[in-house]
Amino acid sequence: MILGIAISSRCEGCITFHIHDALKAGASRQKILETISVAILMSGGPSQAYGSIVLEALEQFEKTVA
């Protein structure tokens, strides 16, 4: 949930922190993609732009976070 709020509030630092922690806590790629979708539904276009930041961070962190 907090990742969705970070996307909606357009906080890049928060997005990075929370995506890292979500992966460490065991969140699946699918759950993170759903979170991006909900944030876009709730906040519109600006969240869509920040959703791409989440996807980029997700790809980077999936390689390093176990």
List the SSEs and their pairings:
Elements: H1 2-8, H2 12-24, H3 29-43, H4 45-64
Helix pairs in contact: 1-2, 1-3, 2-4, 3-4
Runs with pLDDT <50, length 5+? Answer: none
Report helical residue fraction: over 70%
CATH architecture: Up-down Bundle
Average pLDDT: 89
The helix/strand order is: HHHH
Quaternary organisation of the protein chains: single chain
Q: What is the CA–CA distance across the termini? A: 21 Å
Q: What is the overall silhouette?
A: globular
Strand content: under 5%
Computed over alpha carbons, the radius of gyration is 10 Å
Put simply, the count of helices is 4
- The CATH class is identified as Mainly Alpha
The domain tally reads 1
What structural class should be given to the helix and strand makeup? Answer: mainly alpha
The profile of the biggest β sheet is:
none
Count of β-strands: 0
Q: What is the name of the CATH superfamily?
A: AhpD-like
CATH topology: AhpD-like
Can you walk through the features of this model?
By secondary structure, the chain is mainly α. It has four helices and no strands. It has one domain: Up-down Bundle (AhpD-like), CATH 1.20.1290.10. α1 runs antiparallel to α2, α1 crosses α3 and α3 runs antiparallel to α4. The radius of gyration is 10 Å and the shape is globular. The two termini are 21 Å apart. The relative contact order is 0.21.
Which tags fit this structure?
AhpD-like; 0% strand; mainly alpha; 66 residues; globular
